[in-house]
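Subject: sequence -> structure tokens, single chain

Hey, anyone have a minute? Need the predicted structure for the following. Not urgent.
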Amino acid sequence: MTTYEVAVTREGRWWMVEIPGLDGLTQARRLDEVEKMAREYIAVTQDVPISQVAVTISGIEVEGQDVLETKTLVDDLRTHAKQLEELVADLTREFASALSGAGIRADP
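Reply:
Had a minute. Here:
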């Protein structure tokens, strides 16, 4: 599998996705579409299956500022929050089961 580096820049209502290794450029309407659009562009221009294409985002520029680090942190924190929510749900079920097994019922 070949990995291509891409650089992302906001221009107006579009995210411009530059693929320097191919001197290529595509665009995405939303930031979460960038990877897909880059992979599709690369697959078509290189005549390879999309499954054989990977991308690494080297930067996300908005008004001259690289926000990739902040986006990565937000994504990581969201993943961690989801894991914590799942843990809380599991523990809540265990707690409710223990109370129920001890004959303790919730008041109506």
